[in-house]
Structure formats: structure tokens, C-alpha cells
Amino acid sequence: MMKVSLDLTCSVCGHGQFRLPNRPEEGSKVCCANCTAFKCHTMDLERALMAIGQPRPTPQPSIAA
Ligand SMILES: [Zn+2]
């Protein structure tokens, strides 16, 4: 997970930093960096990821030569 500041606020504590998954196995959950509430999971996730330039995890095509 990486900690980022987003133009969002936690719906629980109002904190403005969140932990974003940066590995596929971490899923797509966004949690508050302060209270770790998964309530921070937001429909703004797509926009938030774009804002920080994080490419969405895409499955790597297996190369079968
Ligand atoms: Zn919070």
C-alpha cells in the first residue's frame, strides 16, 4: 500500500490521506491512512488514481512463444 494525499476526505474522521493498493493482491480497497476505515472506499477511486498518475493494474499477457 502507498500513502497518498487525495482531494478527498475520510467519511469517518475527515482525514485527507489514504492508503492505496499498488499491488494486484491488495485488491482495490482504499482505506483512510488515519483511522484505516474502509469507509474511505469511494466511487471517486478512479478519479483519485488518475490524479496521482497511478496506472490501473492490468493483467500481463503471458507470452507463449
Ligand atoms: Zn478516516
Which keywords apply here?
single chain; about 60 residues; alpha+beta; three-stranded antiparallel β-sheet; 1 helix; 3 strands; about 15% strand; binds zinc ion
Characterise this structure.
There is one protein chain. This protein has 1 helix and 3 strands; from the N terminus they run E-E-E-H. It has one domain. It has a 3-stranded antiparallel sheet, with no helix packed on it. 11% of the residues lie in helices and 15% in strands. It binds zinc ion.
Low-confidence segments, given as residue ranges, are none
Shape: elongated
Q: Structurally, how many domains make up the residues?
A: 1
Hetero groups bound? zinc ion
User: What does the radius of gyration come to?
Assistant: 13 Å
Mean pLDDT: 74
Q: Give the strand content.
A: 15-25%
Brief account:
This protein has a 3-stranded antiparallel beta sheet, with no helix packed on it. 11% of the residues lie in helices and 15% in strands.
Topology:
Blueprint (H helix, E strand, L loop, with lengths): L1 E4 L11 E4 L10 E2 L12 H7 L14
Antiparallel strand pairs: 1-2, 2-3
The structure holds zinc ion.
